[in-house]
Specification:
Elements (H helix, E strand, L loop, with lengths): L19 E4 L10 E5 L2 E2 L4 E7 L6 E6 L2 E7 L6 E7 L7 E9 L5 E8 L29 E8 L12 E3 L2 E4 L5 E6 L5 E6 L9 E3 L2 E5 L4 E6 L5 E6 L9 E3 L2 E6 L3 E6 L5 E6 L9 E3 L2 E6 L3 E6 L5 E6 L9 E3 L2 E6 L2 E6 L5 E6 L9 E3 L2 E5 L4 E6 L5 E6 L9 E3 L2 E5 L4 E6 L5 E6 L9 E3 L2 E5 L4 E7 L24 E3 L11
Parallel strand pairs: 1-6, 1-42, 3-9
Antiparallel strand pairs: 2-4, 4-7, 5-6, 5-8, 8-9, 10-41, 11-12, 12-13, 13-14, 15-16, 16-17, 17-18, 19-20, 20-21, 21-22, 23-24, 24-25, 25-26, 27-28, 28-29, 29-30, 31-32, 32-33, 33-34, 35-36, 36-37, 37-38, 39-40, 40-41
Amino acid sequence: MKSDTDHAISTMEQVIPVCIVIFVLVGPCFSQPAISLSPAVGPPTTNLRVSGSGLKPYSTIDIYFDTYCEVSAVADRSGSFSRIATPVPASALPGTHWVSAVERTEHIGAQGTFEVFTNWRQFHRHNMKRLNPYENVLNVNNVGDLDLKWSFTAVSGGGDLGSSLAVVDGIAYVESPDTYMYALNARTGALVWRYPTGGEVHSSPAVAKGVVYVGSVDGSVYALNARTGSLLWSYTTGNNVYSSPAVVDGVVYVGSLDNNVYALNARTGAKLWSFPTPGAVLSSPAVVNGVVYVGSNGGYMYALNARTGAKLWSYSNDSSVVSSPAVANGVVYVGSGYDVVALNACTGILLWSHRVGVITIPSPAVANGVVYTGTDGGEVFALNASTGAKLWSYGTGYVVDSAPAVANGVVYVGSWDHNLYALDGRTGAKLWSAATGSYVESSPSVVNGQVYVDSYDGKIYAFGLKYGAEEAYKPSKRPDLKLLRRFNLRVSKPIAAPPSADF
């Protein structure tokens, strides 16, 4: 079943830096006032570039993000300007924002829209830190106002829903043990499309450049059109694929229970290389600076050359490595047996080890110098990332196999006690919790002011601020060009902005 969806998200006013005048020269162009934005979608801090035409020759053009002036330019003799760098403010909330280019004296100009999304593209980003650095709606002060927005039943009567959702440009992608890969409207939970794989799907999906990548118990890795769900290609390994793909620079990295790590061409599915390990690979790879970090049930943590698959180093403490590694500041953090270990990312040398006393399966999250992880003993631990010293722990009612997720100072984690928790990342204090119908082994995804998780009751859940608490985030109206004014600007040289990174 396939269908398309339209989606729109709230528009908000933001506080913007002071203006800078930039003089530019471009070729002639005569038309009605118009602007173009590149890119037109991205997270806060995106390097946005604005071009315009059809304006008064040699006029001063003020460029606004919502109602605040960002920069200014001087049009050339044809009334055009080109590629003026305008950073999207870090405070820009998710939704539609207006970018306006206005002639200062005539108060005429053109407008375009920029969509702010704080996407969660894979199990998490290629470094697997499970941190959303762009989330700016939910925080320690308002997370207690979270409420259920919607739920979607993927498996009637319950089922093993244990993977993390990818949420990209307003669509939530999630696996299901009923053999389907689902795409849902992230705001409403409405079904957009579903695709039947050849077996249960426990791998968390990854989304890159309009393609969804996911593994299946039928031993295959699938690439699906993110908009329609149509199959682009599939690659068959020798056994089940529980590992969640990591997609970096046009390559899909994934593990299989056939004891191999694979690198596949993201466009065609062709195998680039494979690396054999002494055990099944359930761990999801982290890819940083041309190196693939991945664990094996054979008791090893590996660092592989991302281009060739050649082994750079390996580490073993004689315990299986089911956990997916996180890489931050030159250190690899991973759960191994009864320990959380920190390894030098270049050499694999052990930097520290912290014994939690019980099996630690979840992948750690790393944020602000702290490593967060859960254990089969039902606790969430916060460890000093430099030393491994315990900072705090929080006890849930049962096993914590959910990998924590961190956003804006809040740690989100599920438990087998059927609850999803939000904890203060600094103190471990419980800020909020919500009950589901069964175990929560899934790792939460925190995107655009909502928290997504699935449960063994066969449902996917989305939590957002209560309707009363959402008032502060109501969209603002399209700015009136005649009311946009900002003077006393200083002169600067033209700015060339680099392309915005995939987020």
